[in-house]
């Protein structure tokens, strides 16, 4: 017995030592992986001394003696706080994730190698001006100074995956700029969706389910559905390509910005607000910084990986972006020469495919060799799917799909334009800089300290011929010249306004041009609910302040739900006295509700679940589950629903009838069935006690980490979650993924940052992003802003204050290394 007792004590002691060692190791690693934010670092490549003051929110204030040293220091602090994020972005650009993540990342690498983002970045850099090269190199030198000099631990991702950071190159910055354009601009997935829908529906019905902008008529096009039904294998292959593409542009991806002149403010100076809506990620996409040097005073949101203040202000002007969502991507069906598969047909005859070989390294597996083909339009993206060249010969020939995009051009000067934009001092120099802003097209609002406001939508938008009967809605025959681009809309003809008489400008991805505008930008504008709500709130207050602008950014009244509810509540099935009391109480609550999507209420959850089930009943049986899942990704999915319910004997007669039953269902029948299904779904998810149903609990904002966001156990460390209000259509947006059966109401797309600029005192401008400044999940600054972000609170950067952090800040001095002494002769 004593032996067993001694053994027990020995095992207990061993366990305690193990636990103590693990805790001690964790505490050591957590501290060792944090950056040095105080002291002096001697670094090669600097020209003069730089001081970096971090305020209590971990925002760096960089004080340099020249601009290049300021960009060097920005690279250094980006690497200190966001090195893993930057390394992931570098690998995404180059199609090299499989090297560290293994076979699961291979599809992503195939796609990016075929797309050629890194290849194009190299071509852009080769044409860059000396100024651009100098800035990019100074920034890269700063990043690499941290990598080369870091002797302590890095953030835990490097430890978990057993990898070391690679040196940063200028083309990495240019490539990531292109990936941001990928996130923000294009409709190629819509073209693929139309190819798929064409296998199930005629062209006229596709125009109903992908409804035009409210008040617009569908574009007159060729009968593309009939054409694509003859190319069914090609449509199938392209659907695979779309599934394998890296996450990027989501139809209707949006943002808000608005600006008012001093005539509408208490200060007499303009106010400008901006909140870009993007997929939530941890760490946040943005990193706030303040840069000072002779001739430079910049503060605002930077992108780790780029030496730019993308959204922010200098000493004289402030600016903000929203996505224009132009049609700047076209797919082309290329006909392959039956006698020579190395050629494809052009308007001038047969031409050779451009080809080159990519070798993809895969962790734990053999290398993968990829042959990339290009045409006069661009890369052949259908090759990303299983080999398509011999898939079928429906018309006696073989086909491939090529991709054309304004951002894949070697003469792109967007980085240079962004650099000069931050140096602008007035409207003239601001717009002059934007002549070279090529991709992605953005709605930019402007204000200056002299009281001027303006708007411009710079970016390359292709001109399409008058006889183009597809206008970018669907893949075009590549051998027919009428579908070729005819240059780009002249800069002078791009939408712009300066000091409009009403003294207000609002953009929220709504249609920005009238029917008389001479050029085609897109036919797929986002529905105007947010713009309408912002305008109404601006009109309701005679004199605005930063606080009233913050209240607008916090607004969660959904005009979309307000539009839909009366149509749903009018159905006889939901006015039946025989309904269970619990259901009658919920319906009564909806009738009294004002459509405010507040986190602490049940009505937003009930209404959203009802609309979700209704959309399923209207569309899924007509197009099939896979395509319906794509429709659920559409911000505008409510528009065809409303069109059907408003015309139950016309358009609604087709969509409301369930083709899987023998009965003839009406829209009223379908509304009633959707109600019952919604309640059953909510009961299953949240229990039958409706008093405990809360929108915020279901509508948690989920900021997901790359690549550990979906890895069990690790996701709880790296992901960031917080309860929020709003919906897809509110000013304080919280877009959910209805196709996600596990969490259909979670917010995955929201305000990635918020900013309010006060031109009477730019140092009082307000900022907030969705997580925190640090990219290290073990840092106290990894998620310290999340609750404030959910409450729509702000921090100030204090661009013109001598002691920017108040009573709590750290100072790091970057000292240039002494030049190497030449050896004696």
Automatic annotation (TrEMBL):
Pfam families for the chain: Penicil_amidase
Entry-linked InterPro entries: Ntn_hydrolases_N, Pen/GL7ACA/AHL_acylase, Penicillin_amidase_A-knob, Penicillin_amidase_dom1, Penicillin_amidase_N_B-knob, S45
Binding residues annotated for Ca(2+), in chain numbering: 191, 327, 330
Family: Belongs to the peptidase S45 family.
Textual note on the cofactor: Binds 1 Ca(2+) ion per dimer.
UniProt KW keywords: Calcium, Hydrolase, Metal-binding, Zymogen
Active site: 255
GO molecular function: hydrolase activity, acting on carbon-nitrogen (but not peptide) bonds, in linear amides; metal ion binding
Organism from which the protein derives: Cupriavidus agavae
Cofactors required: Ca(2+)
Protein name, as recorded: Penicillin amidase
GO BP terms: antibiotic biosynthetic process
